[in-house]
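subagent[fold] <- orchestrator: predict structure for attached chain, return tokens only, no commentary.
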Amino acid sequence: MKNVKEFSLRAFLSRAKRDRRAYRLYLTRLEKNKPRGVESRLAAWEKAVWKEIDCLTCANCCKTMTPTYTPRDLKRISKHFGMTVSAFQKKWLKKERGGDKDWVNKSTPCQFLNKLDNKCSIYAIRPADCSGFPHLRKKFVDFAHIHHQNVESCPATHALVTKMKAAIPS
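subagent[fold] -> orchestrator:
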């Protein structure tokens, strides 16, 4: 059973804003000079994070961010709704401006988020981007830039970087 503390999104966002600069500088230093053993320690840190964090008490990712939809996601989810990919895109998605021009949600919070209990109404078939979020277990050198983005919006990412800072001073 989790040892999850009472969670306040407001308190987390305040703490994340306070830590933003220091955590980003820390991650930048780690990216430039990767310490030995960081990859082998990620699994233990991630396990500890999930003992503290329950995503259903937060759902800030679903409230403030949008996943990118792969062609495979589009086929699977549109089929679930009995729609064509084109109809699904037209109803709920838009092309991202600039960059890769990925398919993303038209708006936030996510249209599939149940606001009463923070559960995803398409959890079993959710986009790959959602199922991998917040990408804590991924290879650090490949995902440090993602942690830069998520450290101030995701309590799990913030907790992971907090653990890293305690174990690996910069």
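orchestrator: received. Logging for downstream: The CA atoms of residues 36 and 168 lie 10 Å apart. The chain has a mean pLDDT of 91.
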